[in-house]
Amino acid sequence: MHKLFHHLADELPEYREDINFLMATDPKFQELMGKYREVDHQIRLADENIEPKCDETVEMFKRQRLALMDDMVLIIRARRPVRVAA
């Protein structure tokens, strides 16, 4: 059985502190997280057959969720200092 609900901090545990910080301070990140949660909710409703959707729609939602995650990771990485190998 696959995981139905994707918490971003569970998906990206190495960024947990960054996610918490950005959720408290960054309006753009908050907006993306809201969209991520809504898309994830739609996927869960379809997967649990609460609101059945065709496979193409579910796949579209999954692509949207991945794109939102990618956008949030870009924001997270932009706030981290660049590490130079010694």
Q: Would you mind describing this structure in some detail?
A:
- By secondary structure, this protein is an all-alpha fold.
- It has a domain at 26-77.
- The protein has helices at residues 8-11, 16-25, 27-47, 55-79.
- Helix 2 packs across helix 3 (27-47) and helix 3 (27-47) runs antiparallel to helix 4 (55-79).
- Residues 1-5 have low confidence and may be disordered.
Provide key terms for this protein.
86 residues, mainly alpha, disordered N terminus
In short, what is this structure?
This protein is mostly helical.
Secondary-structure blueprint:
Elements: H1 8-11, H2 16-25, H3 27-47, H4 55-79
Coarse shape: elongated
Biggest pleated sheet: none
Number of strands: 0
Mean of all residue-level pLDDT scores: 88
